[in-house]
Design goal:
Length: 298
Amino acid sequence: MTSFGHFLQHLTNALSLGSLYALIAIGYTMVYGILRLINFAHGEVFMLGSYIAFYAVSLFFLPWYAAFVVALGLTGIFGIGLERVAYQPLRNSPRISIMISAIGASFLMQNLAIVIFGGRPKPFPVPQLFNKVIMMGQISVMNVSLIIPVITALLLIVLQAIVHRTKTGMAMRAVSTDLPAARLMGVDVNRIVSFTFGAGSVLAAIGGIMWSLKYPQLNPSMGMIPGLKCFIAAVIGGIGNITGAVLGGLLLGFIEIMLIAALPTLTGYRDAFAFVLLIVVLLIKPSGLLGSNQIEKV
């Protein structure tokens, strides 16, 4: 394979990984945009979606497409329930209280997953549709690596249409701008927050399933590192900005893959690249690439 062929191979991998990061980062940025809350349990919601899909196929013998729909629905419901139980009672408490609750929910979910699902890794059943190799000249690409960016782009378009062209989206923007004022204007804040958590959880489940199709091995801690990286991607792009989350995810994926391709001896440090990039971006532009400076309300 020529050097150009290697470059295209790495470019495809970078686009696929960056799209996965972007898909999961959107959930972080949506919740932060509404409540100014970092949902540290988002990585565990990502893990839960993958496990539900796995058991729907292997235990209940559902077709893969039905299993994926069930996983999205149940994960969305779980996300709404998580907000009602862990976050809503603390909505008027100091920010540190709700942040601690989010961290506690993350560790609780991870340890419950070990008890319920077991600590041993499980092979994710990849449907034949997502397991084909596409030859493009000298380049061989798994078709799932091309499907992931398309799904991310379609979901971004749908989400932007909801936020900017529907009454629910208008209410989301109102709550994001000023929650007390939105409540005084008659916006059902609880419904909007629940919708946001449900939509973010569905996106996390889609990301988890796509991740499992690309890297077909499940374990209870699988959401920890991707969750941290996607949080970093959201911050880099400008947390609270949906387009910024996508930009941050793509940028993180491209830098991670391309640096390893150029310097393969640093493969063991690939997770550190995300934190270095975060520090550099925040030093240059603390609000993120597409973020805007906001006055923090206490």
